[in-house]
Amino acid sequence: MFSGTYTALVTPFRAGAFDEEAFARLVEDQIDHGITGIVPVGTTGESPTVDHAEHLRIIEIAVKVAKGRCKVIAGTGSNATSEAIALTKDAEVVGADAVLVVAPYYNKPSQEGLFRHFSAVANATKLPVVFIFITQRTANEIGVETVARLAKACPNVVCIKEAGGSADRVSQLRQAVPLDFSILSGDDSLTLPFMALGARGVISVASNVLPREVVELVNLANAGRYAEALAVHERLYPLFRDLFIEPNPVPSKTLLHWMGRMEAEVRAPLCEMGEATAAKLRATAVQLGILG
Questions:
Q1: Which is nearest to 113 in space by CA: 92, 88, 138, 89?
Q2: For the whole model, what pTM was predicted?
Q3: Rounded CA gap, 74 and 129, in Å?
Q4: What pLDDT, on a 0 to 100 scale, did the predictor assign at position 81?
Q5: Most-buried pick from 57, 123, 136, 279 (CB within 10 A)?
Q6: How many other CB atoms are there within 10 angstroms of residue 178's CB atom?
Q7: Neighbours of 271 (CB within 10 A)
Q8: CA atoms of 9 and 103, how far apart (whole Å)
Q9: By the 8 A CB rule, do 2 and 201 touch?
Q10: Cα–Cα distance for residue pair 174/158, rounded to 1 Å
Q11: How many Å is the Cα radius of gyration of the chain?
Q12: What is the pLDDT of residues 124-155, one digit of tens each?
């Protein structure tokens, strides 16, 4: 069962190359602040713009640095089933604890196509499989019936990162899947309401920046202390909002750069923040005491 706070890690770059030292520091910081797990090379980690060798190296470094102190859920998704299978097999070899597989983007398969895609990946590995769709990026929703079908057909399909933005869908999923099937929020701003309806945690972008605070929010909610969790949510909400005022992970990497953690560099076609949005993000970071 997946429960707790998992960070969808950004991938630091320097002069066009993967910055292994900055990445290792980021992983250590996550562990130091009580994170349940890390998710290297998801879409927040700019997976579409790293090549296969880089992709595997990022997972290797995550596993090496984590040393079993937190779970490593390796991003292995692709819009080609064969590539997703290959990445998943490689992630298993280098020691990942589970894999995160995104719904195929752009080619927009039918529900039957989605079922076959995720089934093929799950059947190619012994690792637990977490799957995700993000409507605005994949242009395709994994239907509740398809989720239930996958959970029944594939014993290692055990969790969904729910990023569709609908609290009602969380209730639908909770009714459709077994109790030991985990739902994790895929949107920081919806973590608390989703957990009130049966989700067990979050795969978070904001925890790249404030891991301790996001862990606190999730732990309070899992303990049923919703009034206290709401106070944390309300304090962090401006950051949850502003980390998405430009395409993810541009704002996160920009803020981490201001904090002295890494370069703000992203790979094309992403680019640096505009002046107005950067000023808004900086103001929020100052308000929350992240920056002086």
A1: 138
A2: 0.96
A3: 10
A4: 97
A5: 57
A6: 9
A7: 11
A8: 19
A9: yes
A10: 13
A11: 18
A12: 999 999 998 776 655 678 999 999 999 999 99
| Structural domain spans, the chain | 4-222
Per-residue pLDDT of 75-124, as tens digits, reads 999 999 999 999 999 999 999 999 999 999 888 899 999 999 999 999 99
Q: Given 3.90.870.30, 3.90.550.10, 3.20.20.70, 3.30.565.10, which CATH number is that of 4-222?
A: 3.20.20.70
Place of tokens 């490593």: 72
Amino acid at 48: P
Q: Which two tokens mark 50?
A: 């790293």
